[in-house]
Write a structure and sequence with these properties.
This protein has twelve helices and three strands, in the order E-H-H-E-E-H-H-H-H-H-H-H-H-H-H. It has three domains: about 55 residues, no CATH class; about 70 residues, Serine Threonine Protein Phosphatase 5, Tetratricopeptide repeat (Alpha Horseshoe); about 100 residues, Alpha Horseshoe (Serine Threonine Protein Phosphatase 5, Tetratricopeptide repeat), CATH 1.25.40.10. Strands 1-3-2 form a three-stranded antiparallel beta sheet, covered by helices on one side. Helix 6 packs antiparallel against helix 7. By secondary structure, it is mainly α. The longest helix has 19 residues.
Length: about 240
């Protein structure tokens, strides 16, 4: 049997009322089992000291390497831009071994690139059930809600990503963009500047900062923000 140990507070299937003791351990276990029904075989849950130990039967030894091979092939196809084939390979990998959080996250990113946001959310939710401390999954969820123009949800997930990985430039940039769209320009500017400081070569926060300055009527500062992205001027003596 394989086991996953997760804090009860990290399980989205449990409400604050559940965690307060309103449910018995047996009832909590049933709720958790339903959320992890995508795992193979019978699932057993043991709850102790605020954590859940979720035991499931892993694939046969001879089948463990196959999902990894499919994931590696999928990553190569995605890198080359062949998203449909990458999607097929990652789908096969997850079917062969459902307990692969990184493969599920990569599969979600492919669904996102192909415009299937609902499927991307489903895979990310399962990925976070398996690895609730994966900051990048929260960043991708933030990007999904940004595309759906659900600024409050986007801000919540980008903030969670930063709780797990402080200073991450991608989460900071996403938080800046969502904050700007929600009307909180002061926070947006702060997040863009923090993202630039974290990764000076990352262009998106510079574009975000410039757009924010332009909308505020500060055209000179906007031009200065964009100028830093341009190649250095060729010396006159060349």
């Amino acid at each position: 049997m394989q086991a996953i140990v997760i804090r009860l507070s990290d399980l989205t299937c449990l409400s604050s009322e559940d965690l307060s003791g309103a449910c018995s351990q047996a009832e909590l276990g049933e709720k958790i089992i339903k959320q992890f029904a995508f795992l193979t075989g019978d699932i057993r849950v043991t709850i102790t000291d605020g954590t859940a130990r979720i035991e499931y039967r892993q694939p046969a030894t001879e089948k463990i390497s196959e999902p990894q091979r499919l994931s590696e092939q999928g990553a190569q196809k995605a890198k080359s831009g062949d998203f449909p084939q990458a999607l097929h390979l990652f789908t096969q990998a997850v079917a062969a071994n459902p307990a692969l959080p990184v493969a599920r996250r990569d599969l979600a990113m492919l669904h996102y690139e192909l415009g299937d946001l609902s499927a991307a959310k489903d895979q990310l939710i399962d990925a976070l059930r398996l690895a609730p401390d994966d900051a990048w999954s929260y960043v991708v969820l933030g990007n999904i809600f940004t595309r759906e123009q659900d600024w409050d949800s986007a801000i919540r997930f980008f903030t969670k990503a930063l709780d797990l990985k402080p200073g991450d430039p991608y989460a900071l940039n996403g938080l800046g963009a969502a904050s700007a769209k929600s009307g909180d320009e002061a926070s947006a500017m702060q997040h863009f500047e923090e993202a630039i400081e974290a990764n000076p070569h990352f262009p998106e926060p510079r574009f975000g900062k410039a757009l924010l300055l332009k909308n505020q009527g500060n055209l000179d500062a906007a031009a200065e923000a964009l100028e830093s992205l341009l190649p250095s001027k060729i010396p006159a003596w060349i």
